[in-house]
Amino acid sequence: LSLENGLSKYSATALHMRAMLKMRKGQLDDAEEMLDRALRIEPSPFAWKMAGDCSFLKSQFDRAEHYYRKSLELDPKSPETVHDLAVAVVSQGRIEESLVSFRKATELDPRPDFWHHLSIMTLLAGHYEEGWDLMKWRLEVPGVTGTFPNPEKYWQGEDITGKVITIRTEQGWGDAIMFARYIPWF
């Protein structure tokens, strides 16, 4: 109950925690009001990022971008905020521009999910050779492709003459159906 109501209405930290709970409950307007109060008390990078997250959840992508940029003014090396800025930018249809932030996020923290997101946006931007090369990162992100046994047996481009090949689905039935047409060629 103290988290719901806060230990002090004057504590930015208490407001952050209460706003986080409200966001998890989907009470975004209440969360936004608490974050506004927290920012008036202490305009920290964390509060600006949370305000960005709240705006993003409300599909206010331009506002989320503004808040992420405010957070990065105070903490320019936050990989999560740089990544979230990239997502807010691409959500406004600015794909090429988002690549700058996606790349910076991978430089700050080479997390597989950051690389995977960069690969998707690179493909979306039409940079196919680079995008497909980066797509290998999807194998490192839990839940994206499922678990495959014997990764050491994955095809690496070597000659397959006389070998038995197992073809499995990876990313859903739509892709499986679409690419099944290539099985006879393979």
What does this structure look like?
With 186 residues, the chain is mainly α. It has ten helices and no strands. It has helices at 2-5, 12-24, 28-41, 45-57, 61-74, 79-90, 95-108, 112-124, 128-134, 173-179. Helix 4 runs antiparallel to helix 5 (61-74). The radius of gyration is 21 Å and the shape is elongated. Mean pLDDT is 89; it is low at 1-6.
Question: Which key phrases capture this entry?
Answer:
10 helices, mainly alpha, disordered N terminus, 186 residues
In a nutshell, what does this entry contain?
By secondary structure, this protein is mainly alpha-helical.
Strand content bin: under 5%
Q: How would you state the average pLDDT, rounded? A: 89
- The count of helical stretches stands at 10
Assembly level: single chain
SSE sequence, one letter per element: HHHHHHHHHH
Helix content: 55-70%
> Main beta sheet: strand number and arrangement?
none
Radius of gyration over all CA atoms, rounded: 21 Å
Low-confidence runs: 1-6
**N/C terminus separation:** 61 Å
Based on helices, strands and strand pairing, what is the structural class?
mainly alpha
Indicate the overall shape: elongated
Number of strands: 0
